[in-house]
Amino acid sequence: MTFANISLEEKQQVLEQLRQIKQQFAAKSWFPGTSGNLSMRVGDFDPGHFYFAITASGKDKSANTPEDFLFVDKSGRAAETTNLKPSAETLIHCEIYRLTGCGAVFHVHTIFNNLISEWFGDQGAVPAQGIELIKAFNIWEEDAAISIPVLPNFAHIPSIAERVENVLNPAVPGILLRNHGIYAWGKDAFEAKKHLEAFEFIFEYLYHSILLKNSLHQASR
């Protein structure tokens, strides 16, 4: 499959879905500054040959313009002639697609995912147990427990991308960068959005749970 073989209709459908998701997340203030990035795969998947649309670098994601997204190949290179630059973190998206074959990857920076990733950063993972939203990941065991990986936030993006394979767990569709943000993915935009929202609920729950436990501990002394 080449990029030229993918229909214009399919490309436009992917771009429209990304615009809608971008608007919804911007309304939640999940893109402070020009942070965050969204991507969706287009066409068939082959680990050695695939394409996806991703947010262009340095754009205000609260606004919609014809230059918000571009298409790239499996290596993060532009799939067609353009003056746009892909997000600086495109290589991380490339690795997640290659390893999972997923249909969409969403990355946002929030206060809660930053604080929780820093709190548990030295452990290398965020433990969560008995939280209702774990069911969003199709995990239905009573009092289910998951571990959400945390990677170091290197300025050198390839150093992050090369560590993705070592920590990625297909059963837990998310990876945190320490004091940076969450990457969540799914088979399509709907599932990736569901997973991202579930992670954000879990992070906020854990944050308040930690504060409550510390307050009760102080009060009992």
TrEMBL record:
Stretches assigned to the Class II aldolase/adducin N-terminal domain: 16-207
Cofactor(s) listed in the protein's UniProt record: Zn(2+)
Family, similarity comment: Belongs to the aldolase class II family. MtnB subfamily.
Gene: mtnB
Record-level GO BP terms: L-methionine salvage from methylthioadenosine
Domain of life: Bacteria
Pathway: Amino-acid biosynthesis; L-methionine biosynthesis via salvage pathway; L-methionine from S-methyl-5-thio-alpha-D-ribose 1-phosphate: step 2/6
Cofactor binding summary note: Binds 1 zinc ion per subunit.
Residues the record lists as binding Zn(2+): 107, 109
Database matches in InterPro entries: Aldolase_II/adducin_N, Aldolase_II/adducin_N_sf, MethylthioRu-1-P_deHdtase_MtnB
Keywords: Amino-acid biosynthesis, Lyase, Metal-binding, Methionine biosynthesis, Zinc
Keyword match Lyase: yes
Function, in words: Catalyzes the dehydration of methylthioribulose-1-phosphate (MTRu-1-P) into 2,3-diketo-5-methylthiopentyl-1-phosphate (DK-MTP-1-P).
One GO molecular-function entry: methylthioribulose 1-phosphate dehydratase activity
Gene Ontology cellular-component annotations: cytoplasm
The enzyme's E.C. designation: 4.2.1.109
Organism: Paenibacillus azoreducens
Catalytic activity: 5-(methylsulfanyl)-D-ribulose 1-phosphate = 5-methylsulfanyl-2,3-dioxopentyl phosphate + H2O
UniProt name for this protein: Methylthioribulose-1-phosphate dehydratase
